[in-house]
Amino acid sequence: MTRLSGGEAVVRSLLNEGVDTVFGLPGIQNDWLYNALYDARDDIRVLHTRHEQGAAYMALGYALATGRVGVFNVVPGPGLLNATAALATANSLGARVLCLTGQIPSGSIGRGFGVLHEIPDQLGVMRSLTKWAERVNSPAEVPQKLAEAFWQIASAKPQPAGLEIPMDVLESRSEVTFPEPLPPYLPPVDETAIEAAAKLLAEAETPMIFVGSGAQGVSSEVKALAESLQAPVVAYRTGLGVLDSRHYLSLHQPNAKPYWSKADVVLAVGSSMRIPLQKWTKNHTPKLIRIDVDPLSHNKFLTPDVAVTAKAEDALPILLKALEPLNPERTSREAELLELKAWWAKESSVLEPQLSYLKVIREELGEDGILVDELTQVGFAARITFPVYKPKTFISTGYQGTLGWGFPTALGVKVAKPDVPVISITGDGGFMFSVQELATAVQHKIPLITLLFNNNQYGNVQQMQKNVYGGRVIATDLHNPDFVALAQSFGAQGLRATTPEAVRQAIRKGLEHELPTLIEIPLGDVPSVDRFR
């Protein structure tokens, strides 16, 4: 046994779990944690931000880009509340994020004394946004509860966890023992269900596969399954990159709709299939197979014909093996699907100038570059048209639609992936939610490239006001700074580009720069993607 402070026990436990980066803001309730982090500064990098939401979003980006646990630390009360938009986004995305928050002194919790940063039921707030959250009551409890947090994050459906540690617990010292890291629980594969799924797929004449975030780790298996079935693989937002968009079987969600009308069996791998199951089934309902580690996902929209509760990494190899002796030889659907792709390219060609900018981004990112989307018209167009080549290279907010998430999340992505190009696309509205993190990016030398499409409005809302509400524009016009001068004032590289080719040259300058680059792109009203929903 070792005698340690609570803060020292936290740091030792994080090191035991392989953590090498913590995003956060220090404050009085966390002083003893940062004192311990100082002693471990050669082993754990601390990236301090200018706002708690920045720390939480950066941890989220780190987690989404790597599949590892992104750890952030904030002070209690307002500090935690500032981070909750990011925590809600992490929860909706099934991201591996750990929220470490301070807490007021143990003896004052729940007593309403008006202690600095006190809020009612902080633990309840965390529990509403995480898979698991607890309080540490003594230094001796730290290792076991942190091990439990990491176990919860990794077991079954990955989701965030939270741990609050009162300031007196971080300061006090006691004898501490450290457990071995716990192997995660993963539900066993029901091979009877797998056999039923294989039989349905083998009998299908026009099967389809839908992939979501739960399929990001089974790219090669999905490809093998799709090719053996000659089944198109459909992705939207979090499923992009599972199958290389250049493959003839790879479809973005909107251009899969015509194929849906003749599909007889659909396999969903780690995907909610929210839009197809809510909207497309009104005219046609094929047989449905679901593979998902979360049993609650199976019956959300309709009852599947076969449900397999398992991690895709465990289920798909068994499915491939079970399908092999049953599956008939199939005629290639390459010509048919290339024709469908060509149709979609023509249909979506109205999305200009968004497509021209996205084409430049794709070419400059190269094979391994990562794009982080945002709630802006270029981001919306990217979700339904952008070619994604590899898993975890298109980072999306998913259904949470958290405006302003893109820039700070992309900073976390770049921290996690320093050796590949990372581009954040944002609008003027969303960017100003976290503009202060330019200071963080400069101070910590995070060479993220941010493309800021500036239309001086909350563009998506204003388009609806104009097109749906008869031009009743209210509260959506924006007054903006000179973004180039603003970036330069922080010490970042600030550039302005007015054409796709100028954006290409600006990106290249950003790739050569050791500090962040902000590229402002003036943009007027553009065609909306709403017509394709």
Describe the model.
With 533 residues, this protein is α/β, with parallel strands linked by helices. It folds into 3 domains: 2-176, Thiamin diphosphate (ThDP)-binding fold, Pyr/PP domains (Rossmann fold); 191-342, Rossmann fold; 349-532, Rossmann fold, CATH 3.40.50.970. It is 39% helix and 17% strand. It contains 21 helices and 20 strands. Strands 3-2-4-5-7-6 form a 6-stranded parallel beta sheet, sandwiched between helices. It has a 6-stranded parallel beta sheet with strand order 11-10-9-12-13-14. β6, α6 and β7 form a beta-alpha-beta unit. α3 packs parallel to α4 (78-93) and α3 crosses α16. The longest helix has 16 residues, at 78-93. The chain is globular. The model has no long low-confidence stretch (mean pLDDT 97).
Tags for this model:
alpha/beta; Rossmann fold; globular
